[in-house]
Amino acid sequence: MSTARRRLAAVLVPAAGDEGGEPLSARGWRATVVGMHVISAAVWTLAVASVLSGEVTAPVEQGPVLAVLAVLALSYVLAGGPAVAGGHPRRALVHLVVVVVAFGLLGRLAPGLLFLLFLAYPQVWFVVQGRLTGVAWTVLLAVASAVGPVSGAVAGGTTLEVLRESVVSLAFSLALGLWISHVLRQSAERADLIEQLRRTRSELATAERERGVLAERERLAGEVHDTLAQGYTSIVVQAQTAAALLAADPDAARERLSVIEEVARDNLAEARAVVAAFRPVALDGSTLVEALQRLASRFARETGLAVRVDTGALDGVPALRTDEEVVLLRGAQEALTNVRRHAGATAVVLRLARVGPQVSVHVEDDGVGFDPSAVAASGLEGLRGRVAQVGGEVDVASAPGAGTRVTVRVPGS
After folding, report:
1. Of 51, 89, 191, 342, which is least surrounded by CB within 10 A?
2. Element (H, E) at 186
3. Distance CA 155, CA 220 (A)
4. PANTHER family, from UniProt (predicted)?
5. What is the pTM of this model?
6. 261-307: pLDDT as tens digits
């Protein structure tokens, strides 16, 4: 197909969804389409009645005129009506060709029926639903319907009158059609924006749910590591120690069993708190200082190490949020767990201090130490993430043979 033919086809052939859309809701659009059908039937019936009454044509021409009207009605039923509803470009093309030819014949046989243009022009725009194609078929329809009256005019004045009426009718149709096309195009754009908004809201809701699930998963993982896993590790160690002491020192074995029972009860309470997202059991009804003192006391009983708790540098009771207290407590627990597992220490100092608004917990041991730049501790990395959530920071100072000091700071108030 040549370039000229392709351009002509692009202008004359209606495209599915060409710059158009439904200007109303689905229900409103259906009502509009039904209204178009009803008006078409009513106007067509009026035209048939006019022909049969002999008002618009001579009796000898009634047969051909009625045949043209019948073809128009059949075309509308089979092609025009479905095309008005949308999504039928081939039927739209067939109906447009029939309309142009039929009105060319009516202009010659019965010019008095050209009032049907009142119906035909809107049909053109509803069928094509596009500006360029609508203008092209509107002009073709106006020319076809004007040829008969102009060629049949006897006096020049009558010819000018027919032309004037045709131009006025064409201008009105173009204005109406362009407005209809504008409304349809704006409606399509609004529909696209609404659909994009709906998809965006759905994506945001999905992302928010996923973020919430991930955050809860991270919370549970951190709580399990900081409480339950450490408690179970202590139970295993104490059970092994109790088994070894059972024959040689029953009293010491009973003491270990007592510690096991205490840790197990605390772990059970912590498990319930984790599931219910409550504050840690150690802070339930206690201050942070009291919770740290109990933590140090039990750690000393479990390990046999000398543990000193120092709160002398604390200037008054720090004003901390609950999440900041939890972070400091978890930091002390993680540091003591690392002392138990890796330090080989003989003494530990747990210090709670305040400098300005900042509150910090320091856990220092005299163990073997390590090179922080060469060792990655997953527990400390998890602690850093938790501390960062409250705007705090974690410092680890250590060297081989020089012990380790872990410091957790929170902003305070």
Report:
1. 191
2. helix 156-223
3. 96
4. NITRATE/NITRITE SENSOR PROTEIN NARX-RELATED, SENSORY TRANSDUCTION HISTIDINE KINASE
5. 0.43
6. 777 877 777 776 665 555 565 666 678 888 888 888 888 888 888 88
